[in-house]
Amino acid sequence: MNRLNIGLIGYGTVGQGVIKMLRTRENFIRNKFNTEFTIKAICDRSIHQKNTRGLAKTNLTTNYLEVINDPEINVVIELVGGMHPSYEIIGGALRSGKHVVTANKELLAQKGEELFTEAKKKNKAIYFESSVGAGVPIIKMITEGLAGNKFNAIYGIINGTCNFILTEMTKNNWTFSQALKEAQARGYAERNPALDVNGIDTAHKLSILVFLALGKSIKLNDIYIEGITHISHVDIEHAESLGLSIKLLAIAKRVKNQIEVRVQPTLIAKDHPLASVNGIFNAILIDTDPLGDILLYGQGAGQMAAASGVVSDLINLAARNNSPSTIMVGNLFQDISTFKLREIDQIKTKFYLRFMAIDKPGVLAKITGILGEHGIGIASVTQKESKKSSTVPVVMLTDLATESMVRLSLQQITRLSVVKSKPVAIRMEKL
Ligand code: HSE
Prior knowledge:
By secondary structure, the protein is an alpha/beta fold. Strands 7, 8, 9, 10, 11, 12, 13, 14, 15, 16, 17 and 18 form a 12-stranded mixed sheet that branches. It has a 6-stranded parallel sheet with strand order 3-2-1-4-5-6, sandwiched between helices. Helix 5 (105-121) runs parallel beside helix 10. It has 3 domains: 2-133 and 303-331, NAD(P)-binding Rossmann-like Domain (Rossmann fold, 3-Layer(aba) Sandwich); 139-300, Dihydrodipicolinate Reductase, domain 2 (2-Layer Sandwich); 345-428, Alpha-Beta Plaits. The radius of gyration is 24 Å and the shape is elongated. The model has no long low-confidence stretch (mean pLDDT 93). The chain has helices at 13-24, 26-33, 64-68, 86-95, 105-121, 138-145, 160-172, 176-185, 194-197, 200-214, 233-241, 303-319, 326-329, 363-373, 403-414, and strands spanning 2-9, 35-43, 59-61, 75-78, 99-102, 126-127, 150-157, 224-225, 244-255, 258-269, 281-289, 292-299, 340-341, 348-358, 378-383, 391-398, 401-402, 424-428. It binds L-homoserine (HSE).
């Protein structure tokens, strides 16, 4: 029988989900995996205000040092989130010879290299399945199932909150704020929802995937990040009528010896499988060699979805307790790649552009003239008649265009007196 003593730090939504799952699956885990987990300690700053029924034998504390210094504990689960004190908790747990399970994408994205080096030094493992896609097993898929593959591209819908917001805006004709409120009420969003809607949470997760898949350790500042706060219902409707859907995509692609890494609202064909990923569901499409395309889909946010990933980490850890997988303590977060990051200005994509312009002859010619001067071809133009106001939305789809040229043209177009608000530009991606 494998026996592991657990210390859990962070008894919030996910922490409580993990305890619930461990307790309700106790016999299942014992019978199927020959493994017994004992919950030795739970630490939370408001542990005494929380429901701890059935945990009489567990040390319930507000001091995380009691957990990381307890010699009987083998594995520390960190579910506090954010940088501090999670950094001190994980570092301290490793230094006192404990394995770590965490769902902390922000910390791994920023300090992963250092923490994995520490783990390797101590021959301990850090497991982090729930850091990306909650229980959707993307980490194990990349590190184990696809271990011998090379990776050409990753396209991910990896923030449940943003995907939920875009879905609700489309389905219910809601504004962004209405949909965000609903996501918060359902407990999907981060404590600070700006991390979700500004694309930062997606970027944290993408940097973990890029490292695992491409061996490239990238700083958050090197990722081009755009969130969804500027997406309006007008654009969702236009996209729909053009046969397109808007998704917040995490994109990493190899282009010769460079990689493009970006997070952005992206227009994709409505009949592509990623376009039908709705609500809090996440999906990650990976183009690998020699396997080809592989698509993983499932619930990427929520209490039990995240608990599922943490419990799978614990079971894996128990099976390898005395010989942590070399994948998990190997060269993770050491930059073994020679790929250079491609600057956003050099990236070429097709664009959806929307201008709010005065409805009079010659306006279209002025706009297309500026685009033409910058070498940007137009694939289609739509202008719907407006009965209510003197400005109308003019929507254009461009041919492939370089980012820097699009930016320059939009600056000039914004200055035209016939254009009444800041143009909207959304990149399109052919998957
Ligand atoms: N706020 C995150 C999301 C939770 O919406 O995806 C899971 O990481």
